[in-house]
């Protein structure tokens, strides 16, 4: 049986409700009214008991999980940390066996960012953020591994350079030069994917309480990084042409902004790109108000030629450029990079060493071998063509099933749309879909404060499935089981 957890919230206080919940849980643990292994109230029951939004409880629980105070167990709920695995009083049972199937899961940010990667039981992963293995450069990976295995073992036995594998940084200097971004190797730092690059930028430039701007909607992993760092996150609406420039200027005047994080090309989740005029005005605003611009550009290779680059326009003066090879070669190699001023690159490399020492030179050698073997550009062309065909087919299917698009994507992996006639919120529909082994990504996961909404992000590579469209039809007609 779930142990009662009683506390009060004071809406008259300036302290946010999320912070009050976190404080009360940690106070109860310190006062021994909560004990290791205690199952916490479900998100819905705690929200109902205090008359607050489920999104407030989700954010509080996510923060407590990140602090190690709680642990999230799929199919069972949230527990006070410290219980022996599999021995949780109150965990739901079926014939003595804990529930582990997707039907028992609640769709939360923590689930989307962690457990979905390990859950192979979900049949339709329309909401995921990666491409199928067969779409990636598996032949290039195999060839690179064979080539590197023939080299001397000493090449793999040592720590790498703090900035990363030199020949790969030299290759990137040439590649960025093709984009009109001047970045010699000493201004490039290799990382474990773009997410680590973003994390290192946050660690190096920002401190808890700083205000940063993000797009609304924005990349959900970025939002998690910023929340974990204790930053004040302000969303700026993303329009068809780019950012809402009036809202950007207003936020810059209202807050002491330290950084803006932006996807210029094939933005995740909308799939749109900045216009040259929008990019120019973003840089003007950053210059007037003195904040950094972090350009997350991981979809550049899939974007139409001529899509503007903030780093190219700025010359890496106020812009920090981030990218990776996860979407074009493979996410398993975990190779990303950033480019910035020479002094900042030195500071970020120092943060990288403190946080986890060097990145994997073996993986960086694999990526370098693939890039220099000569077939990578052909692979990108094939991948872009495949995405174009799949995206066009998905857009047609979604519209035929009553889904209204948020924006017309210009390319890339994602399409966003809503069901205007559905009675439930996107998160409620996502939870209902999970009962049918369909993974959806509700729009609130891409908003700074998990604001309730009615739209989803669909992955074009995983959404051509009749089960998905049968579910959308039922949701639109109100025929989902209660």
Shape: globular
- Strands ordered across the widest β-sheet: 5-12-11-10-9-6-7-8
Mean pLDDT across all residues, rounded? Answer: 87
CATH topology of the largest domain: Aspartate Aminotransferase, domain 2
- The value of Rg in angstroms is 23 Å
What number of structural domains do the residues give? 3
State the helical fraction. Answer: 40-55%
First and last CA, distance: 24 Å
Indicate the CATH class of the largest domain: Alpha Beta
Ranges with pLDDT <50 over ≥5 residues? Answer: 83-105
Continuous helix count: 16
Major sheet characteristics = 8 strands, mixed
Write down how many β-strands occur, each being a DSSP E stretch of 2 or more residues: 16
| Backbone structural class | alpha/beta
Short description:
In the C-terminal section; belongs to the class-I pyridoxal-phosphate-dependent aminotransferase family. By secondary structure, the chain is of the alpha/beta class.
Defining key terms:
482 residues; alpha/beta; Arc Repressor Mutant, subunit A; Aspartate Aminotransferase, domain 1; Aspartate Aminotransferase, domain 2; 41% helix
Set out the fold topology.
Elements: H1 17-30, H2 43-50, H3 54-67, E1 70-73, E2 77-80, E3 93-94, E4 97-98, H4 109-118, H5 138-149, H6 166-178, E5 188-191, H7 193-205, E6 211-216, H8 220-228, E7 232-239, E8 242-243, H9 245-254, E9 257-262, H10 276-289, E10 292-296, H11 310-314, E11 319-324, E12 336-339, H12 342-356, H13 361-373, H14 376-400, E13 404-405, E14 414-418, H15 426-435, E15 441-442, E16 455-459, H16 466-477
Parallel strand pairs: 6-7, 6-9, 9-10, 10-11
Antiparallel strand pairs: 1-2, 3-4, 5-12, 7-8, 11-12, 13-14, 14-16, 15-16
Helix pairs in contact: 1-3, 2-3, 5-13, 7-8, 7-12, 9-10
């Amino acid at each position: 049986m779930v142990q009662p957890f009683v506390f009060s919230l004071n809406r008259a206080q300036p302290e946010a409700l999320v912070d009050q919940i976190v404080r009360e849980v940690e106070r109860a643990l310190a006062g021994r009214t909560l004990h290791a292994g205690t199952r916490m109230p479900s998100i819905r029951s705690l929200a109902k008991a205090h008359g607050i939004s489920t999104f407030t409880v989700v954010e509080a629980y996510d923060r407590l999980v990140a602090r190690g105070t709680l642990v999230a167990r799929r199919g069972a709920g949230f527990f006070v940390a410290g219980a022996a695995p599999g021995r949780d009083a109150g965990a739901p049972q079926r014939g003595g066996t804990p529930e582990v199937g997707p039907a028992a899961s609640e769709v939360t940010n923590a689930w989307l960012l962690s457990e979905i990667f390990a859950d192979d039981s979900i049949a339709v992963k329309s909401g995921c953020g990666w491409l199928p293995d067969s779409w990636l450069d598996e032949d290039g990976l195999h060839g690179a591994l064979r080539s590197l295995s023939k080299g001397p073992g000493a090449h793999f036995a040592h720590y790498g350079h703090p900035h990363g594998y030199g020949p790969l940084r030299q290759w990137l200097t040439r590649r960025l030069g093709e984009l009109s971004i001047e970045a010699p190797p000493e201004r490039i730092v290799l990382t474990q994917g773009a997410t680590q690059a973003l994390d290192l930028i946050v660690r190096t430039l920002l401190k808890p309480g700083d205000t940063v701007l993000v797009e609304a909607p924005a990349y959900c992993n970025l939002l998690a990084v910023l929340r974990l760092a204790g930053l004040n996150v302000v969303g700026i609406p993303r329009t068809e042409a780019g950012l809402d420039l009036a809202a950007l200027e207003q936020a810059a005047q209202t807050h002491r902004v330290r950084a803006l994080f932006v996807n210029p090309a094939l933005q995740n989740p909308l799939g749109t790109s900045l216009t040259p005029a929008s990019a120019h005005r973003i840089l003007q605003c950053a210059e007037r108000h003195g904040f950094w611009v972090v350009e997350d550009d991981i979809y550049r290779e899939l974007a139409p030629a001529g899509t503007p680059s903030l780093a190219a326009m700025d010359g890496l003066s106020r812009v920090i450029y981030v990218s990776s090879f996860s979407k074009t070669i493979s996410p398993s190699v975990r190779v990303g990079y950033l480019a910035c001023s020479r002094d900042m690159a030195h500071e970020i490399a120092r943060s990288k060493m403190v946080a986890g020492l060097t990145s994997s030179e073996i993986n960086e050698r694999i990526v370098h071998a693939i890039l220099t073997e000569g077939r990578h550009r052909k692979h990108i062309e094939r991948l872009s063509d495949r995405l174009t065909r799949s995206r066009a087919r998905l857009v047609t299917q979604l519209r035929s099933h009553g889904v209204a698009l948020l924006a017309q994507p210009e390319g890339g992996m994602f399409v966003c749309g809503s069901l205007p006639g559905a009675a439930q919120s996107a998160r409620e529909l996502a939870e209902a879909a999970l009962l049918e082994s369909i993974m959806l990504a509700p729009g609130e996961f891409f908003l700074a404060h998990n604001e309730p909404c009615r739209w989803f992000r669909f992955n074009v590579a995983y959404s051509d499935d009749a089960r998905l469209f049968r579910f959308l039809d039922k949701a639109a007609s109100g025929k989902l089981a209660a």
